[in-house]
């Protein structure tokens, strides 16, 4: 099952990213991101057949947006979650986890769009949430996409497909735990990174590389 969560940040414009949205079985919009989805949907011919949900506290979801979705013939699954301990993106992830626990046949893949851009504090918070999601929702497989590249969480050993010269950055969110990589230009072997910038701006040597670590987020440049 291909699942897309759309946050209310910068909506992607590049065809490789939008192709993921077009192929989704289920689209979950974080409140006001429904407007961005509807704008995209207007341009699709033929329109994809997708289940659509809206999750959030409702602060950026106007009645006019709901009316527009109804006019488009969407049978929206609207989940209003008023609590403020977690942001709307996390509420959406939590809802996806609840709805997919019964599924069989491998981990559902969750692609997150619109989580970066605009406010920098939202961007930093959302990127760091990937590590949290990988730890708290291990039955889901996450990736976060923008026009510039893709973020992936690592909690253990993970292999990545790449191409020679591709720019790669690592962000260690558990600075007391060592990180190791194989297949990047600048080697890393059992090294702790107390500062967030320290493992950034590396480069792939070939068509794959490996990362070993806990609460690590890996960025692959597009």
List the helices and strands and how they pair.
Layout: E1 2-6, H1 15-22, E2 26-30, H2 33-42, E3 51-56, H3 63-71, E4 77-80, H4 88-100, E5 109-113, H5 120-136, E6 141-145, E7 149-161, E8 167-172, E9 179-182, E10 188-191, E11 202-203, E12 208-221
Parallel strand pairs: 1-2, 1-5, 2-3, 3-4, 5-6
Antiparallel strand pairs: 6-7, 7-12, 8-11, 8-12, 9-10, 9-12
Main sheet attributes: strand count, strand direction, barrel closure: 12 strands, mixed
Q: Report the total helices.
A: 5
| Spans of at least 5 consecutive residues with low confidence | none
How widely separated are the two ends? 24 Å
**DSSP strand tally:** 12
The CATH architecture of the largest domain is 3-Layer(aba) Sandwich
Characterize the overall form: globular
What structural category characterises the helix and strand content? alpha/beta
Structurally, how many domains make up the residues?
2
**Named CATH topology of the largest domain:** Rossmann fold
Rg (C-alpha, Å): 18 Å
Along the chain, the helix and strand elements come as EHEHEHEHEHEEEEEEE
Percent helix: 25-40%
* Mean pLDDT over the residues: 94
At the first level of CATH, the class of the largest domain is Alpha Beta
CATH homologous superfamily assignment of the largest domain: Thiamin pyrophosphokinase, catalytic domain
Percent strand: 25-35%
Q: What do you see in this structure?
A:
With 222 residues, this protein is α/β, with parallel strands linked by helices. The chain folds into two domains: 1-147, Rossmann fold (3-Layer(aba) Sandwich); 154-222, Sandwich (Jelly Rolls). Helix content is 26%, strand content 33%. The protein has helices at residues 15-22, 33-42, 63-71, 88-100, 120-136; strands spanning 2-6, 26-30, 51-56, 77-80, 109-113, 141-145, 149-161, 167-172, 179-182, 188-191, 202-203, 208-221. Strands 1, 2, 3, 4, 5, 6, 7, 8, 9, 10, 11 and 12 form a twelve-stranded mixed beta sheet that branches. The relative contact order is 0.15. The mean pLDDT is 94.
